[in-house]
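To illustrate the input format used throughout this study, we show a single complete record. The first block contains the structure-token representation of the backbone; no residue identities are included at this stage. The design step must infer an amino acid for every position from geometry alone.
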């Protein structure tokens, strides 16, 4: 029953970092130790500059619309905090919106007298675009979509939401931390005002960097809360804020982390992403069918469009029970917290386990996980 090696099935966040990423980071650290940090940066100027162009190729947008940040959260909050909320503004979010976004949204709404409202869901818990259309008026300042929720196997209809907002001035923010790579790489939709991504997931890059892709409309109308000599140089007694997405960056960043990402992007540009997505979908399908055959287990993913995230509950055993029993057999799964999607769980949704295969997982690992879950349903404690 026990597996000899750790089986990573705990979300894409458990994706194993690419060997070349690790190597690139280590080599730059050695350069900094030998040459000094500034000299090492100058020596690596070419690959550091190339990451904008390479990422632009991957996501289908010009590099002027790309800004790097410390994480998906950092990218999302930097752009959101640049909006000047007013009394009476309305912000609309899906029931499965990421809890970190909810926290800052509610905090800022309370400060400025804006309203945070939940878009009604379909029976499967995804954003209902017809209901969204009926909510729109000139007070709606922002609509938020978590493309693939962290607590549900469904895929929110990000493109359909964008089309629904065709005649609205509301900003559309898309959190693509879980979706980028396993669902879509194309972030070029002109109505996507801000899309944020964590590179440590399906790109298998390092932790400590994320990015945002911004629409031209957003760049024209919104400036950051803070700037420095890179994003807004002070010349001629005037702060000259850049006109591209780099105005949301600072001059200081972790160059070794960026070089790690540069390696991951080189791999990504030569990767067959359709094969990656097909592999993930196949493993997820097998997990759902296998879980559905285990007594007492209910698969909670009922949407028409499904991601590689698989969630299940049990009639009487808690999610922590399965995390504990599988961990004892070197299998890594998750039990999402209420804070991951507060509106979802506050609506009375069941607590779940989450299993998220990546393309590096194998069919045999999935079978071991299923066997262990079934075995765990018969154990106490």
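Output of the design step:
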């Amino acid at each position: 029953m026990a597996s000899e090696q750790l089986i990573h099935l705990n979300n894409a966040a458990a994706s194993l970092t690419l060997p070349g990423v690790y190597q690139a980071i280590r080599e730059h650290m050695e350069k900094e130790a030998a040459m000094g940090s500034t000299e090492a940066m100058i020596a690596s100027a070419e690959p550091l500059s190339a990451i904008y162009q390479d990422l632009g190729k991957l996501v289908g947008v010009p590099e002027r619309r790309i800004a790097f940040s410390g994480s998906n959260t950092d990218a999302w909050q930097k752009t959101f905090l640049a909006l000047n909320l007013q009394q009476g503004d309305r912000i609309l979010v899906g029931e499965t919106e990421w809890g970190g976004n909810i926290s800052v949204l509610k905090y800022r709404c309370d400060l400025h007298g804006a309203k945070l409202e939940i878009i009604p869901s379909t029976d499967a818990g995804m954003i209902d675009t017809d209901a969204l259309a009926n909510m729109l008026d000139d007070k709606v300042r922002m609509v938020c979509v978590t493309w693939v929720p962290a607590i549900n196997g469904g895929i929110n209809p990000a493109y359909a939401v964008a089309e629904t907002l065709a005649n609205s001035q509301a900003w559309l923010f898309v959190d693509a931390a879980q979706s980028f790579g396993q669902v879509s790489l194309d972030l070029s939709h002109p109505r996507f005002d801000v899309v944020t991504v964590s590179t440590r997931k399906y790109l298998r890059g390092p932790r400590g960097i994320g990015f945002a892709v911004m629409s031209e409309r957003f760049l024209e109308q919104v400036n950051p809360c803070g700037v420095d000599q890179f994003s807004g140089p002070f010349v001629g007694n005037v702060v000259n804020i850049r006109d591209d997405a780099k105005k949301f960056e600072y001059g200081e960043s972790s160059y070794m982390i960026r070089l790690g990402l540069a390696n991951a992007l080189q791999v990504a540009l030569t990767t067959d992403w359709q094969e990656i997505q097909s592999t993930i979908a196949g493993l997820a399908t097998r997990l759902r069918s296998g879980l559905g055959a285990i007594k007492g287990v209910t698969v909670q993913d009922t949407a028409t469009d499904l991601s590689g995230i698989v969630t299940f509950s049990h009639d009487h055993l808690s999610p922590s029970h399965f995390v504990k029993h599988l961990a004892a057999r070197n299998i890594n799964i998750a039990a999402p917290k209420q804070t991951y999607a507060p509106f979802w769980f506050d609506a009375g949704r069941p607590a779940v386990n989450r299993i998220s295969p990546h393309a590096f997982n194998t069919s045999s690992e999935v079978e071991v996980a299923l066997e262990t879950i079934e075995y765990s349903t018969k154990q106490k404690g």
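Structural context for interpreting the output: The chain has a mean pLDDT of 94. The chain has two domains: 7-17+272-376, 19-269.
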